[in-house]
Specification:
Elements: H1 3-43, H2 51-89
């Protein structure tokens, strides 16, 4: 495997890891916010707060944020690889 292919594989691996971390963080934060709201709702004898109302939007938001973060990493990585291979040839 050439150095360029190894570097590309590492950028792709980084994008995958970041995608997973971003999605997970958004979902975890939404779960924590849901628990806080559910407890407040139960203590105030208000209407029951459903988890589905909190988690569905969080999953969609996390999916788009994760895709955006991974796309930025891939764009920067492949742009840097292209610049590095051009400057190496010159």
């Amino acid at each position: 495997m050439t150095r360029v292919r190894i570097a590309a594989a590492l950028w792709i691996a980084l994008a995958i890891v970041v995608w997973n971390v971003v999605l997970d963080q958004v979902i975890v934060l939404a779960g924590r916010q849901y628990i806080i709201e559910a407890l407040a709702s139960a203590q105030s004898m208000g209407p029951y707060v459903r988890i589905n109302d909190w988690m569905r939007p969080a999953v969609a938001r996390g999916f788009w944020l994760a895709n955006a973060a991974a796309a930025v990493i891939l764009a920067v990585g492949f742009f840097a690889l292209r610049q590095a291979t051009r400057s190496r040839r010159t």
